[in-house]
Amino acid sequence: MSLSRPSLTSKTYLAPAKVNLGLSVRDHRADGYHELHTLMVPLAVGDELEIGPAATLTLEVLGADLPADERNLVYRAARAYLDAAGVSEGVAITLHKHLPLASGLGGGSSDAATTLMALARLYPSAVSLPDLALTLGADVPFFLLGQAAVAEGVGELLVSVPVPRTALVLVNPGVEVSARDAYAWLDDEEAFTPALDVAAILAALSGERAVPYFNALQDGVSARHAPIRAALAALADAGLRSPLMSGSGSTCFALAPSDDAAYDAARAIAAAHPNWWVEATQTL
Description:
Pathway: Isoprenoid biosynthesis; isopentenyl diphosphate biosynthesis via DXP pathway; isopentenyl diphosphate from 1-deoxy-D-xylulose 5-phosphate: step 3/6. The protein has 284 residues and is α+β, with helices and mostly antiparallel strands. Helix content is 33%, strand content 29%. It contains nine helices and ten strands. Strands 1, 2, 3, 4, 5 and 6 form a six-stranded mixed β-sheet that branches. Helix 1 (73-85) runs antiparallel to helix 3 and helix 7 packs across helix 8 (226-237).
């Protein structure tokens, strides 16, 4: 296979976080996964990856205590692409981890998708990135899409939708939530939910009324993690609209009427809770 020569310099890429503007868990599937219906939106905040050509594959992680070998999804994504593309050369990757771990923001999946896209630029080939992404995780194909989408199935069935630019505040109270546990608690109570009303959610985003979204996992997770209840309360007390937990937690978010209002609310929440991770951001 003929490949173009790589650039001699590394480049820095944003791996954007996401929030779920509603998450319905419709049922438990025979394969052990769950049937989902969710509206996912990428954000202007995320991790960063420095990626450049090298003789072998190497990964360095800064900002978090994470492995830098095949246990890391970034490493696995890079290895999968290099092998599928038949590339004998390698890549040097530095992951700057800014997002909290196990937080419902899709950080690991976004890092993996960003790695795939960067390597496709560095070593072009006919490899299907969506097919490769799905082998790495159900959320990874969404981050390849690069825009808001309604996701169904286990999250791999994607339909792009236009979402108005929205300011919001993210709060992570410092607890890690296992997605496996979150879904198990829902299964125990058989608390499955109807499909989201996506049209109503999109219409409400541009207004001032409450957004009619919900997260099927929120009750089970927040019942077992008091800090998540505190985060949701702090967002509401700051005057922000429609607080909700993202994904399986533990990050929660709420909407702001403007960027300035989001930054003011984030500063106030961070001052009151100095041990929390708090960010004002916008949808992409």
